[in-house]
Design brief:
This protein is of the alpha/beta class. Helix content is 49%, strand content 12%. It is built from nine helices and six strands.
Amino acid sequence: MQRLFVLFDLDNTLVDRRGTLADWAAEFTARHRLADEEQTYVLSMVAERAYPRTFDAIRIRYRLPTSTAELWRAYCTDIAALVSCPTEVLDGLDELRAAGWRVGVATNGAVDIQRAKLRAAGIAERVDGVFVSGEADARKPQTRHFALAAARCGTELGDGGWMVGDNPVNDIGGGRTAGLSTIWIGHDRSWPPNDPGPDHTVPHARAAIDLLLLHSAGHTRTTT
């Protein structure tokens, strides 16, 4: 019998990264006494993904006396303090595991910042495994990323499974190539034309969890 397992993306799926970054950029520019209009540049530097080298560029641009390492550590601390996961989503992760699901997080990014967010948001203790691309230089949409994430949950891609995320290429395209069923967190966006669509589209993570719980209920009925 196939095991039920699901991998969730982290940023803008389980947590709101966009809103968190906007708040952080405002605090950062104020702390370092930069002009208000510099918020746009600072935000653009971390919008896609942030690494220590990102803060080397910021430090050089503004001639900040703080070291790159100190700026990076402060960023990890600040983002972790700002990030949150909705209570109904945290409860849903518990419900999935109680229903027999193996639940994991598959996320791109630097290890220290991603794991800090997972701990601070209360997600880390509610999943069976986490894989961050920085741990083994395996980034979504590479199939190896999904395989390593599944292994962290004590399962493998050949067991089937699901991928839930907001990125059409990294999460949905990558998940499909890895042999996973897919749920796209649409955030009121339209699916890119000419791209194969996800198996399901939902507005937020709690709706994805509810869909998975319905799936597992039907799975139980057909295997008993």
